[in-house]
Amino acid sequence: AGVLYVVATPLGNLSDISSRAVEVLREVELIAAEDTRVSGRLLAHLGLSAGRMLSLHEHNEQARVPDLVLRLSRGATVALVSDAGTPLISDPGFRLVAAARAAGVRVSPVPGPSALIAALSVAGLPTDRFVFEGFLPARGAARRSRLNALAEETRTLVFYESSHRIAACVNDLAAVFGGARHGVIARELTKHFEQVADGCLDALGAWLAADTDHVRGEFVVLVAGAASVSTPDTAAADKVLSVLVDALP
Ligand code: SAM
Fold first, then answer.
1. What is the pLDDT of residue 1?
2. What are the residue boundaries of the ATP-grasp domain, all occurrences included (predicted)?
3. What is the Å distance from ligand 1's center to 153 Cα?
4. pTM here?
5. In the predicted model, is pLDDT for residue 33 greater than 70?
6. Which residues contact residue 225 at a Cβ distance below 8 angstroms, ignoring those fewer than 6 apart?
7. Which of 171, 200, 199, 197 is nearest to 186 (CA)?
8. Residues lining ligand 1, Cβ inside 6 A
9. Looking at the predicted complex, does its ipTM rise above 0.95?
């Protein structure tokens, strides 16, 4: 029977590929890749042939799905990879996975790097509950309105951001959540210029502005959740309640 393997690839450091990922990439009949040039470089590094690749990106995924699912149903083994990290996480593949599952094809993960989890693992923010918000809207007004909707969120917030918008993004985070809220910027994880900066959002904005190198590369931005109902408020509410209870006949 056919199998669709969803294979995680490195975020930057090529040694982060798992042995099982190499094995699967060596053995499958077809590799569906977000960008065949990027994945071609990875395959070349691993000494594997790049001849079995087919492109599957945002713009052609819908059109490619029926043929791929047909091949899978007829017994083909296919690996899905994206440019970096785990496919489907702010990357193409959702339509293919959904269609393969609907057709009864086995879909099997070959887990590995994802910038989201890598950043959470070093940020020092609570990870028992978190919300992944992916990329915020590119335009300022839409971005601030999205952030306004998240202002009361008590779980740790995680965003992806590009170098073009990192400064504007952190300024808006400070404007909407308040400059005193704690945040973490994880930049170029697993790469040569990896940096993880933390502080209040105002300080992080200043850190970005202090050095043009700080706004280069790829970013995960994490923000502490809004403080849940504070103790004094609860105490006050309890007091009102006890007064009311006492007044009841
Ligand atoms: N599928 C990927 C994953 O599992 O993390 C994410 C793909 S998304 C198109 C690319 C974004 O992920 C970047 O803009 C950045 O926000 C984040 N990212 C990817 N690699 C990173 C790295 N090495 N350091 C920090 N952020 C990274």
1. 82
2. 40-249
3. 23
4. 0.91
5. yes
6. 126, 129, 153, 154, 155, 156, 157
7. 197
8. 11-12, 82, 84-86, 89-91, 114-116, 160-162, 186-191, 218-220
9. yes
